[in-house]
Write a structure and sequence with these properties.
The structure holds 2 protein chains of 2 kinds. In chain A, 28% of the residues lie in helices and 28% in strands. Chain A has 2 domains: 184 residues, HUPs (Rossmann fold); 122 residues, TPP-binding domain (Rossmann fold, 3-Layer(aba) Sandwich), CATH 3.40.50.1220. In chain A, α3 crosses α4 and α5 runs parallel beside α9. In chain A, the strands form 4 sheets. Chain A has a 7-stranded parallel beta sheet, sandwiched between helices. Chain A is built from 9 helices and 18 strands. Chain A is α/β, with parallel strands linked by helices. By secondary structure, chain B is an alpha/beta fold. Chain B has 2 domains: 212 residues, Rossmann fold (3-Layer(aba) Sandwich), CATH 3.40.50.620; 29 residues, no CATH class. Helices cover 28% and strands 28% of the residues of chain B. In chain B, the strands form 2 sheets. Chain B has a 9-stranded mixed beta sheet, sandwiched between helices. In chain B, strands 2-3 form a two-stranded antiparallel ribbon. In chain B, β8 and β9 form a beta hairpin. In chain B, α2 packs across α5 and α3 packs across α4. The N and C termini of chain B lie far apart (54 Å). The chains are: A alpha/beta, B alpha/beta. Chains A and B meet through α3, α4, β7, β9 and β10 of A and α3, α4, β7, β8 and β9 of B. β18 of chain A pairs parallel with β13 of chain B. The structure holds flavin-adenine dinucleotide and adenosine monophosphate. The site of adenosine monophosphate has 23 residues of chain B, from α1, β4, α3, β6 and α4.
C-alpha cells in the first residue's frame, strides 16, 4: 500500500531552496508513521551532487533526472518528465513548495495525471486510513479548509516557512536512481527567452524569515532606504503595502497581501501600515508581528504582538541601531 | 484576434467570513465582486481587442448572481458571455471546473485565453493552468507584461527573485498578475450597451457532460475559522527607550532576531 511520499526539490544553479528542505524534514516525520519511503526528486542539469545534499534531511531515495533541457525550469519539460515518473512509480503523495515554480508546475501536473491537488497548504497529516489530509487557508486566511483527495496520488504545494528544517543527519544513506528525461515534443512549445534576476542580496520575500514592510506612512520612495538599512542589519527582506505600491514608491513585486505576495515569516515588522484586511491576507500567518505606527487606533495594533506608537522616521533608525548593538 | 476570458465571481475582499449551522461558509448577504485578478485579465483582453480587433467572450461557471460580474465585464467592453450553471456543479473541485470550462471554451473560437492567476476566495491558482492542460495548449502563469505579434505571445512572468520572458505560439492560456495593467471602469455608454449583450446560459447537458463524468478528486472535510490575532504589548516611553526595549524583547523573549 505504502508507495512513497515524493518531494519535488527546487534548486537554482545547484542551490537548494529552503522550502524543499522544510518539506523533506516534515516528509520524514510523515513517512516514519506509515513506512512510506521518502523520495527526493531532483530535475535539472548537472545536479548529481545534490543527492548528497538532500539525503541528510531525510530522503530514503533520490531520483535524479539530469538533462540539459531541464537546466532552466519550464512548465512543459518538467511536467512531461514528472508525469511519466509518477505514473511509473505511483507514489501516494507528491509535495512541492508553493513557490513560483510550484504554483506553475503542480496544477499542470495534477491535470495531466487527472488527480486532485491542494494549494498553498499550511498543515498536513495522515488520517486513520493513511490518506494525507491538508489544511489550507481560504478567503485570504479568513477561514481554513481541511481537504483530502479521493484517490491517490495527491499533489500539494506547501507554503514556505510552514515547517522547520530538521538538523541534517550526515550519516544517512539514500539509494540514488538516475532516470532519463523523456520530454514530449509538444511540451517544448514555450521557450524561455530571458531570465532577469534582481541583484538584491536580500532574501526572497516569500521565503524570508524576517520582513520589514512599509506602507503609506513611508511618504515617498526615497524613504525606503530607512527600511533597507534596517533589513540589512537583521538579514530581512523588504515588503510593502498596496498603498505604497500604487503610489509608485516601490515595485509591485514587494507588495504583501491579497493582491500581492503571501508571506509567513518568523518576524514581520509593519511600518506605517494601517493593517487592512487585504494586507493581513498576505501576512496573517507570520509568527510574530511588530507594528510601528503613529496612530494608536490603527488596526495593525489589534494584530501585532508588539507595537510602538510613534513616528517611523524616528523609531526605525533607532531600532536599526539597537539591532546593530545586538550583533 | 479572438479572446476568451475566464471570469470567476468571488466574495468581496472586505467580506467577513462566518460558518453556517452546517459548518459551511455562509454566503448570505455577502457582497460579490469580480475576482480582482480577473479584472486584469478582462482589461488585457480589451487592450488586445483594441489593437487587433476580434471578439472577447467571457466564460464563467457559477450561480445566477455571476451575471452581475459578467454585466460589469460586458460594460467594460467585452462582447459576449457564457454562464455555465447546473445543479450538479455543487462544490466543484479545481479539476471539475477546469474540465467544464474546457468543454465550454472548445465551442468558442480563441487565439488567447486570459484568466486570473488566482481566485481570492479558494486561493487555489489551479483552474486556468489545468484548463490549458485540458485543452493541450501552453500556459504562462502570473504575467505582468504581454506583447502579441504574428501568432506568438511574448509574456513576462513573475518568478521568485525576478522575471522571466516566455515566448509561446498561440493559442495559449495566460494568467494575470497585478501590475499587468490598470483595469478601466465601465463607462455610462458601456453600461447601456451591456444591457443588450447576451449572457448565454449553459448546462452540463448542453456541454455533453453527464454528472457521472465529474467525480470530485478532492473533498473538503471541514471548514474552520482561525483564532483571531490579538493585539499584544504596546511599548511606551521615549522613542529611544521604546526602540531599545523592542529590540531586547525580540531577542530575549520572542527569540526571533
Ligand atoms: C481587492 C483589493 C485588494 C487589495 N489588496 C491589497 C494587498 O494585496 N496588500 C495591501 O497592503 N493592501 C491591499 N488592498 C488595499 C487595502 O485595503 C488598504 O487600502 C491598504 O493596505 C492600505 O495601505 P497602508 O496601510 O499602507 O495605508 P493606510 O491605510 O493609509 O495607512 C497608513 C498608516 O501609516 C500610518 N503613518 C503615517 N505616517 C506615519 C509615520 N510617520 N510614522 C508611523 N506611522 C505613520 C498611519 O497612521 C496609517 O495607519 C486591497 C484592496 C482591495 C479592495
Ligand atoms: N468557476 C469559474 N469560472 C470561470 N473561471 C474560473 C472559475 N474558477 C476559476 N476560474 C479562473 O481561474 C482563475 C484561477 O482560479 P483558482 O484556480 O480558483 O484560484 C480565476 O482567476 C479565473 O480566471
Amino acid at each position: 500500500m505504502a508507495k512513497g511520499i515524493w518531494i519535488v526539490i527546487e534548486q537554482n544553479k545547484a542551490e537548494i531552496r529552503n522550502v524543499s528542505l522544510e518539506l523533506l524534514s516534515q516528509g520524514r516525520m510523515l513517512a516514519d508513521k506509515t513506512g512510506d519511503p521518502l523520495v527526493a526528486v531532483i530535475l535539472g542539469s548537472t545536479v548529481s551532487k545534490l543527492a548528497g545534499i538532500v539525503t541528510p534531511y531525510g530522503a530514503d531515495k533520490v531520483i535524479l533526472v539530469d538533462d540539459e533541457n531541464l537546466a532552466d525550469y519550464t512548465t512543459g519539460a518538467y511536467t512531461s518528465v514528472l508525469n511519466k515518473l509518477i505514473r511509473k512509480e505511483e507514489p501516494q503523495a507528491v509535495l512541492l513548495g508553493n513557490t513560483a515554480v510550484g504554483k506553475d508546475l503542480a496544477p499542470r501536473l495534477a491535470q495531466r495525471l487527472g488527480v486532485g491537488m491542494a494549494s498553498d497548504c499550511t498543515g498536513m497529516e495522515f488520517d486513520e486510513e493513511s490518506f494525507l489530509t491538508f489544511r489550507r487557508p481560504i478567503y485570504g486566511g479568513k477561514a481554513f479548509a481541511q481537504v483530502i483527495a479521493n484517490a491517490r496520488p495527491v499533489l500539494a504545494t506547501i507554503r514556505p516557512n510552514t515547517f522547520p528544517i530538521a538538523l541534517p543527519d550526515t550519516a544517512r544513506q539514500a539509494e540514488v536512481i538516475n532516470e532519463t528525461a523523456e520530454i514530449d515534443s509538444e511540451d517544448l512549445r514555450a521557450i524561455v527567452k530571458e531570465i532577469v534576476l534582481a541583484a538584491s542580496q536580500r532574501p526572497e520575500l516569500i521565503e524570508a524569515n524576517v520582513i520589514i514592510s512599509g506602507g503609506r506612512g513611508m511618504k515617498g520612495s526615497e524613504n525606503y532606504c530607512i527600511l533597507e538599512s534596517c533589513a540589512d542589519v537583521i538579514g530581512a527582506a523588504v515588503g510593502a503595502s498596496r498603498a505604497a505600491v500604487d503610489a509608485g514608491w516601490i515595485e509591485q513585486k514587494f507588495q504583501v497581501g491579497q493582491t500581492g505576495k503571501t508571506v509567513s515569516p518568523t518576524l514581520y515588522i509593519a511600518c506605517g501600515i494601517s493593517g487592512a484586511i487585504q494586507h493581513l491576507a498576505g501576512m496573517g500567518t507570520s509568527k510574530v508581528i511588530v507594528a510601528i505606527n503613529k496612530d494608536p487606533e490603527a488596526n495593525i495594533f489589534n494584530l501585532a504582538d508588539y507595537g510602538i506608537v510613534g513616528d517611523l522616521f524616528e523609531i526605525v533608525p533607532l531600532l536599526t541601531e539597537e539591532f546593530k548593538k545586538l550583533g | 484576434m479572438d479572446i476568451v476570458v475566464c471570469l470567476k465571481q468571488t466574495f468581496d475582499t472586505e467580506a467577513k467570513i462566518v460558518l453556517n449551522s452546517n459548518g459551511k461558509i455562509d454566503g448570505t448577504g455577502v457582497n460579490l465582486i469580480m475576482n480582482p485578478y480577473d479584472e486584469f485579465a478582462v482589461e488585457e483582453a480589451l487592450k488586445l481587442k483594441e489593437k487587433f480587433g476580434g471578439q472577447v467572450t467571457l466564460v464563467s461557471m457559477g450561480g445566477e448572481r455571476v451575471t452581475e460580474s459578467l454585466r460589469t465585464a460586458l460594460a467594460m467592453g467585452c462582447d459576449e458571455a457564457v454562464l455555465i450553471q447546473d445543479p450538479d456543479l455543487e462544490s466543484p473541485d479545481e479539476w471539475v471546473t477546469a474540465e467544464v470550462l474546457a468543454k465550454a471554451v472548445s465551442k468558442i473560437p480563441y487565439d488567447i485565453i486570459l484568466a486570473g492567476r488566482i481566485a481570492v476566495d479558494d486561493g487555489s491558482g489551479q483552474v486556468a493552468i489545468r484548463l490549458a492542460d485540458a485543452l493541450k495548449i501552453p500556459s504562462v502563469n502570473c504575467i505582468i507584461k504581454l506583447e502579441v505579434e504574428d501568432g506568438k505571445a511574448a509574456a513576462t512572468r513573475e518568478i521568485d527573485g525576478g522575471t522571466e520572458l516566455i515566448e509561446v505560439r498561440l493559442p495559449a492560456v495566460l494568467t494575470a498578475q497585478k501590475g499587468l495593467n490598470i483595469p478601466r471602469y465601465p463607462s455610462m455608454m458601456g453600461i447601456m450597451k451591456a444591457k443588450k449583450k447576451e449572457i448565454k446560459g449553459m448546462t452540463l447537458a448542453d456541454l455533453g457532460i453527464g454528472a457521472a463524468d465529474l467525480p470530485r478528486k478532492m473533498s473538503i472535510t471541514k471548514f474552520s475559522l482561525p483564532s483571531p490575532r490579538k493585539g499584544g504589548i504596546k511599548i511606551s516611553g521615549e522613542a529611544a527607550d521604546a526602540a531599545k526595549e523592542l529590540a531586547r524583547i525580540l531577542r530575549e523573549e520572542a527569540k526571533v532576531i
